[in-house]
Amino acid sequence: MDKDFKPHLVMILGQLGYTLLYFITEASFNHGMSPYVYVTYRHVVAGFVMLPFAYFLERNVRPKLTFSLFMEFFVLSVLGVSLTLNMYFASLKYTSPTFISSMVNSIASLTFIIAVAFGFEVLDLRNPHGIAKVLGTFTSLAGVMTMTLYKGPIMSNLWRPLINIQPKSDNSVNTSELKGSLLTVSCCVTWSIWFIMQASTLKRYPAQLSLTTWMCFIGAAQSAVFTVIAEHNNHTAWIIGLNIDLCSTIYGGIVVSGLLMYIQLWCTEKKGPVFVTMFNPLSTIFVAILSFSVFGEKLYLGSIIGSFIVIMGLYLLLWGKEGDREVDFKIKGKLQCNSEKTECRI
């Protein structure tokens, strides 16, 4: 496989991993597990799983740890683990997987705007590729807004759901709708800042496995402090048995906080933070399909229309990003020609 397309493939596979996460964590929370305890245990598992890989595979390339770098890791852990994920999974208690996966797609637009503002993303509106990146970003955002604000008629299912899930009562949804929305929006903002900061940190600490391990351990410690405060009247919340709670913790720790976080860091270094976030809409589509076909959740026409709009925006943004790759290739070619003092045509 062409190595230029490896980041695309691993990001698509990563969104499949996130799709399963929505459902397994929702089942665990419905079973009674505290989301704060889940975040803490999940990153403890991830840290111990990633530690040997980071230690042995990056011992020759890992930069020396300084106090300033450690403080960057600490802030990254707040933005990407303890604060953001606690808000994220707390909002899942008040909303649904489809709603959250739809709102998370705004991260791509927020990240693009912040990246342009701080110079991490090149934007040339005189170039068709630059225009495509802007159009793609806002087209995807329009698709997200369509899925969120427009429902339309309910699509009929041609078969019975394979798994029946207990729906939330209407009263519960109405009374907690505002809280869940505020938590989700706050989560999207901090996540966008996290992606941007990753790109900056990786320039000084280009060791993705080690950075992943540091964020897992530091984030777990931060989350543990928060959990002690949030669950101070519920000491049994720390106890999990051999059930869905343990399965969700192991899956979240090994696959999501370990493997997928490393993949995101690798892709961020290769392609930039905007490239990573623009694959989030795929998870929304995967969640909607599974919710409808497997779990029997309601699927509205607005979700289908919004999904197509999101895909159009994704392709526009991908094409725009390919223009960056062509520019980088030309620049590298010219530098190589100048260093060899030969006449070249690019």
Features:
single chain; 346 residues; mainly alpha; 12 helices; 0% strand; globular
Rg from alpha-carbon coordinates: 21 Å
The overall strand count is: 0
* Run of helices and strands: HHHHHHHHHHHH
Q: Tell me the number of structural domains.
A: 1
* Fraction of residues in helix: over 70%
Class computed from helices, strands and strand pairing: mainly alpha
The main sheet comes to:
none
Low-confidence stretches: 161-175, 328-340, 342-346
Indicate the mean pLDDT: 77
Which term fits the overall shape?
A: globular
Individual helix count = 12
For the terminal residues, how far apart are their CA atoms?
25 Å
Strand residue percentage: under 5%
Domain EamA: 9-145, 179-318
Subcellular location: Membrane
Protein name: WAT1-related protein
Family: Belongs to the drug/metabolite transporter (DMT) superfamily. Plant drug/metabolite exporter (P-DME) (TC 2.A.7.4) family.
Description:
By secondary structure, the protein is mainly α. The protein has one domain. Helices cover 76% and strands 0% of the residues. It has twelve helices and no strands. It is a multi-pass membrane protein. This is WAT1-related protein. It is found in: Membrane. Residues 9-145, 179-318 form the EamA domain.
